[in-house]
Amino acid sequence: MSARELVVLGTASQVPTRHRNHNGYLLRWDGEGILFDPGEGTQRQMLRAGVAAHDINRICVTHFHGDHSLGLAGVIQRINLDRVPHPVTCHYPASGQRFFDRLRHATAYRETVQLTEAPAAADGVLADPGPYRLETARLSHPVESFGYRLVEPDGRRMLPALLAAHGIGGPDVGRLQRDGELRGVHLDEVSEVRRGQRFAFVMDTRLCDGVYALAEGCDLLVIESTFLTSEESLAVEHGHLTAAQAARVAAAAGVRHLVLTHFSQRYADPAAFEAEARAAGFTGELTVAADLTRVALPKR
Predict the structure, then answer these.
(1) CB–CB of 187/174 below 8 Å?
(2) Which residues contact 62 (CB under 8 A, 6 or more apart)?
(3) Cα separation, 218 vs 45, whole angstroms
(4) How far apart are CA 35 and CA 58, in angstroms?
(5) Which of 213, 36, 223, 33 is nearest to 124 (CA)?
(6) CA-atom Rg of the chain in angstroms
(7) Catalytic position from the list 30, 37, 55, 67
């Protein structure tokens, strides 16, 4: 199993269908799990996908429409029922605090886990635990909505040929990486920048500055494509994207792997979304998500 992968739990927009559960997406990032937009049925989809409550360290809710948040109550209670041994942090629009409170305390249960509330009120950095930086940007939807972005710090990639040319090997490589200099040889002489991985999660929105900011330079972009171009007027009216719009964003932003999801119930054939995205000019790796799909982050 990849140490960094997206597990798709549901792909439906507004209402579930026979083949699509309400939204739900778990990002595995090394030893941490980040659950995005748990809609109804997320607990059951977690079971089907082999995802446990213990896998969740953060929950990120883009907005408080039901298909993106009604599963929150069950997930929070399951985290407590299973006595998850680590703290869990919840992010969501600050303007929806009353909805979060209702969902968190929807029914009686015993709280056993430290649950931290860290709502988003503006664009910027929400958390910076070290292994990555969690950023957010406001989107354009009838209710306040935020997208999320993970940015890994840049590192260095050692170049064996240059190390050998300077007579550096074995434990000395580690010393050079730690100290930045060894016997007059500087780290940048025998290595190159390895850009950190970037992941973005963009749900219900019209085209706006936030969409482009979140997508910029992403290795993996998960983005809604509720409609096809034939219903673009509906997309604008209801605050959504078409597959072509999402693909053009990804192409302009230099996205390596595009994941389309959040499909209207009116569409039965997912191939139409792939065809439209390709016709719009996206040439990178493309996944039209289905429930229980797993997508590995592209390696650098």
Answers:
(1) no
(2) 36, 37, 68, 93, 139, 145, 146, 147, 148, 201, 203, 204
(3) 27
(4) 6
(5) 213
(6) 21
(7) 67
- Amino acid (1-letter code) at residue 221: L
The reported pTM is 0.92
Contact 257, 216 (CB under 8 A): no
Reply yes or no on whether 67 is catalytic. yes
Would you give per-residue pLDDT tens digits along the chain (300 residues)? 459 999 999 999 999 999 999 999 999 999 999 999 999 999 999 999 999 999 999 999 999 999 999 999 999 999 999 999 999 999 999 999 999 999 999 999 999 999 999 999 999 999 999 999 999 999 999 999 999 999 999 988 888 998 999 999 999 899 998 999 999 989 998 888 889 999 999 999 999 999 999 999 999 999 999 999 999 999 999 999 999 999 999 999 999 999 999 999 999 898 999 999 999 999 999 999 999 999 999 988
From edge to edge, which strands make up the β-sheet containing 124-127?
A: 124-127, 133-138, 146-151, 198-202, 220-224, 257-261, 285-288
